[in-house]
């Protein structure tokens, strides 16, 4: 009788384990819409590794248009500034708090973002369109990555280190084509600052060859 009871007990335990295997825990590394952001503790990984991970997550969010995920990386106190080119203009570049970013994201409000290099044409667009057409104008998930290093530069003055002297930045660089003599390169930079043990974006800077 004891043998039969032991066999039945083992069968029950085995059956429970199989059921649990069919429902594995969902990985938090997968990009998905959520009110949370995936964070890497600074004490667990080096700053460079942590920011590379954050950089890649933000690029994926921008690529698929999950701007609500991007919003979770905006600095809680300083917000985020968008610069059309390498030169950061503190007086004219658009800056949003997280609350304002989320407010204007679905709206049809048109902002003036700056002037196009060469033509001088004033560039106007909604926040959503600016993110889609200007910030992520190329597929930067396929770019060359660097940390606190510039991989290329045009004629536009690059004052990132002067405006954000105590910050870290990542650069995502796409080289130019042979047909255009390499002059159609593009770069997307994120400037980070730490707040309460987490890294947040305070600036999004596009760069390209300028006349």
TrEMBL record:
<protein>
    <recommendedName>
        <fullName>Lipoprotein</fullName>
    </recommendedName>
</protein>
